[in-house]
Amino acid sequence: MINALAQGLLGGALIATCSGGLSAGPLPIGFVYLRAIAPEIAQEMRYFGPFNFVGSPIDGYEAPECILTQAAAEALKAVQAEAQQAGLRLKVFDCYRPARAVAHFVRWSQDSADQRMKVAFYPHVDKADFFRLGYVAERSGHSRGSTVDLILASLTAADERATPSADQPLVDCTAPFAERYPDSDLDFGTGFDCMDPLSHPDNDQVSAEAQANRARLADLMMRHGFKPLAEEWWHFTLKDEPFPETYFDFPVSAPDGG
Ligand SMILES: C[C@@H](N)C(=O)N[C@H](C)C(=O)O
Ligand SMILES: [Zn+2]
């Protein structure tokens, strides 16, 4: 049952927590596992493991699963169907994000002593400025369940790698494609979650190939009802989202509840 709809938090928005009852399996009504709707979409859930800008698993991610609203998952399935015609495949990095995960990001940003992952995720930006510069949101669309971080890869590219390990060598996320961590076999100009002006979708300092890949991803997503973000080439929100005012806080758990 959605047992706590607390108004007044975070500027009058709703925060919802879920503990069974009104839910489908471990999820609130209206949410689905992307794997159940579109198993052909690859998943590399970065906030479940330690290879992310914080450098540790993020609060609320109990399983490496993409959870979305049903509307967003179905729209993404349609994007995948079209991408597949062109020999491409989607890979998601983050989907629904619990409000407690956002709180973890905020706490981490205030700890200036912790610069472990700077090289790999924010080589030229101060982590204290992430929110002001729009790279991380204090009230994230991801918590509304219809926002997704993703990339395109070739259908033929081998991509069954597990979430990167904690001892992954750190390489500057703005380094040339051949040097940095391979999010995909296609060059998008910077790595995923590279908090940097070079990650702005309209940045013209990245290669022509990277600009074309960004444009292709944005075009596909926008034609299926998603809107882009000016600061990050990988981030999209369903325009007609079913919960535009609700910031959920149920954990990302496995479909079997384990
Ligand atoms: C943290 C990054 N992956 C992201 O999603 N940023 C946007 C702005 C957000 O936090 O909603
Ligand atoms: Zn995002």
TrEMBL record:
Sample GO molecular function, one term: metallopeptidase activity
InterPro entries attached to this UniProt entry: A_A_dipeptidase (IPR000755), Zn_M74/Hedgehog-like (IPR009045)
Binding site for Zn(2+): H142, D149, H235
UniProt cross-references to Pfam families, sorted A to Z: Peptidase_M15
Tagged with keyword Cell wall biogenesis/degradation: yes
Active site, UniProt feature: E232
UniProt-listed Gene3D superfamilies: 3.30.1380.10
Highest rank taxon of the organism: Bacteria
Statement: the UniProt record of this protein carries the keyword Hydrolase: yes
Broadest EC class assigned to this enzyme: hydrolase
Catalysed conversion reaction: D-alanyl-D-alanine + H2O = 2 D-alanine
Cofactor: Zn(2+)
Cofactor note: Binds 1 zinc ion per subunit.
GO annotation, biological process: cell wall organization; proteolysis
E.C. designation(s): 3.4.13.22
Site, Transition state stabilizer: residue positions: R97
Keyword terms of this UniProt record: Cell wall biogenesis/degradation, Dipeptidase, Hydrolase, Metal-binding, Metalloprotease, Protease, Zinc
Family: Belongs to the peptidase M15D family.
Function: Catalyzes hydrolysis of the D-alanyl-D-alanine dipeptide.
Protein name as annotated: D-alanyl-D-alanine dipeptidase
